[in-house]
Amino acid sequence: MKASQRYHSEGQVKINVRKTPKATILDLQGPLKMGEAVDTFRDQTEELLGAGTKNLAINLAGVPEMDSSGIGILVRVFTTLKQSGGKCKVFGAPKRVMQALKMVRLDTVLDLAANEEAALAGF
User: Fold this and answer.
1) Which of 10, 25, 90, 108 is the most exposed place for a label (fewest CB within 10 A)?
2) Percent of the chain scored above 70 by pLDDT?
3) Phi/psi at 36 (nearest 5 deg)?
4) What mean pLDDT comes out for the span 27-31?
5) How far apart are CA 38 and CA 67, in angstroms?
6) Which CATH class is domain 3-121?
7) Torsion of CA 39, 43, 44, 50, to 10 degrees
8) In the Cβ-directed half-sphere of 115, how many Cα atoms lie within 13 Å?
């Protein structure tokens, strides 16, 4: 399993990339909000998709909060992968983040899983 990390300034998101036989897993730490955090996440996912990644699992367990920009980039990544024949699973969302996703009814759109094991089983 290969892992890499991107560190960013205080209050921003940190992304740990892990590769498994079924999917690439992105472990996010920090708020996924407008600005550098969303830009970092977008850049990381575009880099992976450009390199041929087809299956992506996004771990939100370390994301304490998410704004509309964070929600928007999740939808964009999910849609891009789906259109290219890949899959995107989102797992481990804390209660506050899950409430935000449910409030805008994305729990019916995004492929959500309770944990990593359940997410990887869906690939």
Assistant:
1) 10
2) 91
3) -60, -35
4) 97
5) 10
6) alpha beta
7) 160
8) 1
| CA distance readout (Å), 6 to 26, 35, 104, 109 | 11, 16, 29, 28
| Cβ contacts of 51 within 8 Å, gap of 6 or more | none
- Is this model's pTM higher than 0.85 or not? yes
SS3 120: helix
N-term to C-term CA, the chain = 17
Can you tell me whether residue 18 is helix, strand or coil?
A: strand
Q: In the chain, where are the structural domains located?
A: 3-121
CB 73 within 8 A of CB 106: no
Single-letter code of the amino acid located at 64: P
In 10 A of CB 55, how many CB atoms? Answer: 19
| Residue found by looking up tokens 């969302």 in the block | 93
